[in-house]
Amino acid sequence: MSDIEIAQKAKMKPIIGLAEEIFGIPAEHLDPYGHYKAKLSLEYVDQVSHNKAQGKLILVTAISPTPAGEGKTTTTVGLGDAMNRLGKKEGKHAGKKTIMCLREPSLGPCFGMKGGAAGGGYSQVVPMEDINLHFTGDFHAIGVAHNLLSAMIDNHINHGNALGIDPRRIKWKRVVDMNDRALRSITVGQGGPANGYLREDGFDIVVASEVMAILCLATNRADLKERLGRIVVAYKADRVTPIYASDIKAHGAMAALLKDAIKPNIVQTLENNIAIVHGGPFANIAHGCNSVTATQTALKLADYAITEAGFGADLGAEKFLNIKCRSAKLAPSAVVLVATVRALKYHGGIEKDHLNQENLSALESGFVNLERHLHNITVNYGLPAIVCINHFTFDSDAETALLQAKCEALGVKCIISKHWAEGGAGAEELAEAVFDIVDHREPGFDYLYEDELPLWEKMETIATKLYGAKEITASAKVRDEIARLQEHYGTLPICMAKTQMSFSTDPTAKGAPSGHIVEISDVKLENGAGFIVAIAGNMMTMPGLPKVPTAERIDIDDDGVITGLF
Predict the structure, then answer these.
(1) Are residues 219 and 337 in the same domain?
(2) Mind telling me the catalytic residues?
(3) Cβ 33 vs Cβ 14: under 8 Å
(4) Residues of the chain scoring pLDDT < 50
(5) Adjacent-strand bridge partners of 526
(6) What is the CATH number for 200?
């Protein structure tokens, strides 16, 4: 069966009763959205934050993504179900509980190339269609809050511009949760003075919005509103004096629009275990992690919290560790690095149509990608790692044996996991390996760089240490902007916006390219989120649809049953 067919046959339990049964969450602290999804009240989040118990944090990341697929979310769900299975059995793990913390899917990739992001096979979170489509309306609220600020900026200029905003130096675009290349560059204010000030503008996708990043890093409503007020939207004509969202007096209304979106969403897996799905910044153009509130709440409710970071470890894991963990003072106890035989053969030079055929030579060539990610995790961050091979039915015994031998030679355990086909039962060996590490290791790791390192050197450190680059370059204009930001914001971390397909800025460079040059083509201050976005190469913050978008296969019948979503 397809993923959506499996999900539609799931025997879900009412979420309010399930949350109370497993974690004792009172019904009055759950706002239901139908029978199977609910929001957790911030009052309860605050209440459990004072619990003395603190769970162990497990990060799931992956090799550089390929069209063949890797399966971070699938692995996160399968691992969580397996750990909960072992917790229900007699033995050393008896009574242990695990929560999975995931990001919300964006409609852009759902209808574009990637499809949904609720897991796959028998390791999914449900209701799958709801989670992948409108869910609880969080992305809508974020988009509206963002665009309210956009409208208020233009409105302020139209009514006299008392703040002295230079319309040429407005830094705040508009957003929509859809891949739409036609909106990357637009002109607003056409049609005469009654329609405002004529100027160039553009759209980003919602998951690249600073409002999304702020929601995912804020710890409560007061922090949310303060961060929204700190957003730098424009500069005065002197090019130095910033205009903040609080100057526009927009941050209060924006926070009001986000009053429910800030609450974590609770759903369940196919095996009726609890998952928190909240927030959804992309990892190639934003910081790629679910909300701090969701992760911290999971750590107070459960013995273990498993979270995934978007795309490869050079993007999502890097930002998780250097931005989210730094901001929220989190520390993972272990990292699960997900790979597939197919994806590694792709990195070894095999085209997608031939990936189901055994090819040990290509697999060995592509292993360099996994090896570099492993080196980054274990050496640059000082974290223990387990390699999870997300099993496909076409994988040969010789191929999996080769991977296990090569990982063993590096001193890292490699588990062949069949959670896609078998659910939690197929990931119990992986769960045991994770337990063995996290139960005997105190959380702790090394940041890639310190706060005091200059912005340019932070970018250079990421590029040379993680990407294998020779150096970074930038135009004189970008260097000047970095120098200006250094003066006032030099201690902020870097959020690198780079293609997810390669360690380089060339998406076609497979494996583990080395000695390349990373061009920093632009930098952008996200003062409310608390980081500097560095655009590497020609990375765009508004994707386009592929020639054959997945939207073409999605449909709904007369009974309301959705098909084609995956």
Answers:
(1) no
(2) 72, 74, 103, 114, 283, 311, 392, 420
(3) no
(4) none
(5) 531
(6) 3.30.1510.10
